[in-house]
Design goal:
Elements: E1 4-7, E2 10-12, E3 18-24, E4 33-39, E5 46-51, E6 57-59, E7 67-72, E8 77-82, E9 91-98, E10 109-113
Parallel strand pairs: 2-10
Antiparallel strand pairs: 1-3, 3-8, 4-5, 4-9, 5-6, 7-8, 9-10
Amino acid sequence: QVQLVESGGGLVQPGGSLRLSCVASRSIFSINAMGWYRQAPGKERELVARIGRGGSTDYDDSVKGRFTISRDNAKNTVYLQMSSLKAEDTAVYYCNTFPTVRVYWGQGTQVTVSS
């Protein structure tokens, strides 16, 4: 039974940076592609970035060039490095497989970009 725990969120000024971490209770990254998702107030949850089983990455146009997804299989951890943050990046950020598995959704971590 897989549990995913996100951390690293917080309050940051526009233009600032944060690094989010997602730790899995057991190794799944060799089997599944992984993604970071976010849900802003009043908005649907959306895919932000994904990393494939072979390490290839894809990004939503809204974050391309600013966010970087990576993983460390030995630590069962996937990361999202965020830079040049904007107010519209404010959301709860979640990790999950890609495609998602419903029961894998965790608590997420809040990212607030505000001056």
